[in-house]
Amino acid sequence: MLEPKKAKHRKQHRRRGMFSGTAHRETSLAFGSVGLKAMSNGEITARQIEAARRAMTHSVQRGGKIWVRVFPDVPVTKKAAEVPMGSGKGTPEYWARVVKAGTILFEMDGLSVDAAREALRLAGFKLPFKTKVVTRIAHS
Questions:
Q1: d(CA 58, CA 55)
Q2: N or C terminus of the chain with fewer C-beta within 10 Å?
């Protein structure tokens, strides 16, 4: 699963206030010809990214090329069950990334547009927000 090799700080604020608005960067296809775009805001975990990547890879039988455009870089902490209030922040449990509407999450190339669209559609079901498949090629 994805996680930073090294973090400057072990714990960090979660940036939940950034769940509004639209993305200004990472909004267009850079590598592949077909991509998966987030249509609403939310937080995506390393496990969800990996599940979506596996769904795409399984769908195309390891054909084509896949680019993962998001990286989970925010540590999310959690306190144990039934722990009294106080005594500081919990321990880091998993890594996440705040995603804004319009962000390209995954890109694909090297196979037919229909196969890539289907693989990305299946990957979208693994994610916690609405997504849309976008193409660079004019699709009639």
A1: 5
A2: C
